[in-house]
Amino acid sequence: IGTALTANHAHASMMGVYGFMALALGMFALRYLVPADKWPEKLAKTSFWSLNIGLAWMCFATLLPLGILQLRYSVSTGYFEARQLTYVTNSVNTIIEWGRMPGDLIFILGGVLPYLYIAFLGLRNWRRGRTVDSFAEDALYEEIQGGRKAWRGERAELND
How do the pLDDT tens digits run along the chain, 160 residues long? Predict the structure, then answer.
């Protein structure tokens, strides 16, 4: 408790679960605000992968090693000493913390900025009244016929 392992768990669970769930809900709503012919699929994929890679980098390349080193130090010298400013700011920890920067840049530049641009497109389309007008009948579900799913291309064959 109170080591970098706690921060690792907190970042991974809060952003990895609730943060990504909020982003996914936002992306789902933006699909209805941006027409399909204007939807930036490549930016959406870039945002998805960059957010995941950036969070994984932060958790596995910096916070996990920091937490393991701090746990090892607390077992050998004591918990109080492992939380002292002299330990937390030592040269090894500083180098590991600076190693977090590439993951943060991937997260922000490749993940957050494209997502914000897509949100801007959705807001602009909504303000101009150019949102998606109608959807296919099966936009949100797949029918099950004859005990197996009928994929979009097979629907005509299964109904015959």
Answer: 788 899 899 999 999 899 999 999 999 999 888 888 889 999 999 999 999 999 999 999 999 999 999 999 999 999 899 889 899 899 999 999 999 999 999 999 999 999 999 999 999 988 888 777 666 665 555 555 665 555 555 544 444 4
Residue type, 146: G
Rg (CA), the chain: 23
Q: Do 158 and 146 form a contact (C-beta atoms < 8 A)?
A: yes
In the structure encoding, which two tokens stand for residue 72, read together? Answer: 């090892």
State the sign of the Cα–Cα–Cα–Cα dihedral 145, 148, 152, 154. negative
> pTM here?
0.76
